[in-house]
Amino acid sequence: xxxxxxxxxxxxxxxxxxxxxxxxxxxxxxxxxxxxxxxxxxxxxxxxxxxxxxxxxxxxxxxxxxxxxxxxxxxxxxxxxxxxxxxxxxxxxxxxxxxxxxxxxxxxxxxxxxxxxxxxxxxxxxxxxxxxxxxxxxxxxxxxxxxxxxxxxxxxxxxxxxxxxxxxxxxxxxxxxxxxxxxxxxxxxxxxxxxxxxxxxxxxxxxxxxxxxxxxxxxxxxxxxxxxxxxx
Length: 232
Description:
Helix content is 28%, strand content 22%. The protein has helices spanning 31-41, 55-63, 83-98, 117-128, 189-193, 219-231, and strands spanning 5-10, 25-26, 29-30, 47-51, 104-107, 134-140, 150-153, 156-159, 178-188, 203-207. The chain is α/β, with parallel strands linked by helices.
């Protein structure tokens, strides 16, 4: 039996770092367009919704083919609102509307415009074919390796990871370490609704390239995203 999968794109109206970030113009399209476009190409997603408190974002999202079945309640759209309650609200609303229960949920952040439909479907397939309950997209930290990081204490420089010596190995010889890139968080419905978490203890990795792992948090990130989107 085919699994029911809901994709939720959170897109709050207010943004502190970059004003109107979710719909800022990126190569002639609002930023949210890139996530909606790739999610709609997915062969596995049953329902795609945008969760927003903004009528403007809702209108733009509908224009590009996303479903916006509600405007998010104000208490879930503050600067301090966490992602988990937003996702749970979307699931509950859609299950009541569709009279169904989803098997899996995938969170797709607007700020990751280089993530493509293959990333979406391949990560979902990996999760569904496993005994794990969630999967998270990651990227190699590259030159920003923890062994190279420092802290300042009493005006003196110390290693962030105390190895007892100064590690001067080339990056290629350092142990592989990864960081979340924000592109994909997928999990079972039970993990979110019963365990109250987006990530389970049995969490799988989905490794993505640096080029597809841009997470827009600053204007520098925006410039980089435009560069890679042009190449794409």
